[in-house]
Design a protein that fits this description.
Elements lengths: L1 E4 L5 E4 L10 E5 L10 H9 L3 E5 L16 H26 L6 E6 L1 H8 L9 E5 L5 H11 L7 H10 L1 H4 L6 E6 L7 H15 L4 E6 L8 H15 L4 E4 L7 H10 L5 H10 L3 E8 L2 E11 L2 E9 L8 H13 L3 E7 H9 L3 E9 L2 E9 L7
Parallel strand pairs: 3-4, 3-5, 5-6, 6-7, 7-8, 12-13
Antiparallel strand pairs: 1-2, 2-4, 9-10, 10-11, 11-12, 13-15, 14-15
Helix pairs in contact: 2-3, 4-7, 9-10
Length: 383
């Protein structure tokens, strides 16, 4: 499965499992001081899902003028942005060498690679998607935050001009799907830069195309949860459009009765449906793919808060990320400050993977542990 190539721009390539080939490729950029080789295991996991994966060697890394001591502060400060800018400048040449069309390509990266991936938003319009993990798309703001933290001199006018030239937050061109993942306690790359970039994207293009997940208790690590969220997002790029319709008829259909039965119990489905029809602050939505009902979600609305009362996906449609997509739709539709849900141990991992924090409520019923799950909307005024 591993293919090592050395071309005009050296890279590692991992080909997809043939029977699962999606026709999409992922270019994944590594972080500062690491190597393309270090992401081969992750690349193989992506290949198992049907993606061709390209791991570029970066300037000042691997075989390209490797720095003797990359983490020595003066060296890091001198070459960090040079590496990012050079990688962005080399991108068109890499595409030409790989013979990949932009609309068949997802660009992603971790740490410094997350900066590079986000940077493509200032250069490319036709990509299939961009994912920045523990990076930032706010170049100027992030450098200012780093200098303040490290007690370094402020940026000179020329340095500001250079950063603005490459900064996607200042010259965003990509309006397509973007994923931003970041540890809330990241001590290396300030999370505020990523948050600012998210807000810039939402302001310019709306919230539908940009997804951001912040992870409680996570520092500067690419965790298994982040990897799973990235793969789930990739799968969503291929999925058929998910359409939603609010249910207002007093008569419950057999499909919705079955779905509510999964979320409650078959004997309580009709009663739950009647509650939705009677309450002004509750909504019940049906979700379809190609006119087939695949799920439903019922919510309770209060000032600034959306509570998920019931959520269910048909057995045939499970494992495709539909539950997470329904929550994304609900959050976009109602724009609450916070989304909450109460669940059991069996379902709590679903909420965690969808960006919720979870706190145990103990045994609310004998032998049944319950969890309070919460996901806050990201609001950040500064761009």
């Amino acid at each position: 499965m591993k293919i090592i190539k050395k071309g005009l721009l050296p890279y590692r390539a991992v080909e997809p499992v043939e029977e699962k080939d999606t026709g999409l490729a992922v270019i994944f950029y590594h972080g500062w001081g690491t190597t393309a080789e270090s992401y081969l295991e992750f690349a193989e996991a992506l290949a198992e899902e049907g993606y061709r994966v390209i791991l570029p060697e970066l300037i000042y890394h691997d075989s390209r003028n490797l720095l003797a001591n990359p983490f020595y502060p003066p060296i890091l400060q001198e070459f960090f942005w040079k590496t990012i800018f050079t990688s962005m400048d080399e991108f068109d040449g890499l595409l030409e060498e790989l013979k990949i069309l932009a609309h068949q390509l997802i660009v992603a990266g971790s740490s410094m690679g997350g900066f590079i991936a986000a940077g493509m938003g200032a250069r490319q319009k036709q990509l299939a998607g961009i994912a920045s993990i523990n990076g930032s798309g706010s170049f100027l703001l992030t450098e200012q935050l780093l200098r303040t933290r490290d007690l370094r001199p402020v940026l000179s006018p020329d340095e500001k001009i250079l950063l603005k030239h490459y900064d996607p937050a200042k010259s965003e061109r990509f309006s397509g799907p973007m994923l931003l993942l970041h540890g809330k306690e990241d001590p290396v790359i300030p999370v505020e830069g990523q948050m600012a970039y998210y807000q810039c994207r939402v302001k310019k293009y709306g919230p539908q195309q940009t997804k951001m997940i912040l992870y409680d208790g996570v520092g500067h690590q690419f965790t298994d949860e982040m990897a799973a969220a990235f793969i789930e997002w990739l799968k969503g790029l291929q999925q058929s459009p998910l359409t939603a319709k609010e249910l207002v008829t007093p008569f419950i259909s057999q499909e919705i009765k079955s779905l509510l039965g999964y979320a409650t119990s078959p004997g309580q489905a009709e009663e739950a449906y009647e509650e939705y029809m009677a309450a002004a602050n509750q909504r019940l939505y049906r979700f379809e793919i190609r006119e087939d009902v695949v799920g439903c979600i019922g919510i309770h609305l209060e000032e600034g808060q959306l509570k998920i009362r019931h959520i269910a996906v048909t057995p045939e449609a499970r494992g495709q990320g539909i539950g997470g997509r329904m929550i994304e739709w609900i959050q976009t539709e109602h724009s609450p400050c916070v989304v909450v849900a109460e669940t059991d141990r069996k379902a709590v991992e679903f909420y965690r993977k969808t960006g919720f924090t979870a706190i145990s409520l103990g045994e609310k019923y004998p032998g049944v542990e319950r969890f309070q799950c919460e996901r806050k909307e990201i609001r950040y005024e500064k761009c």
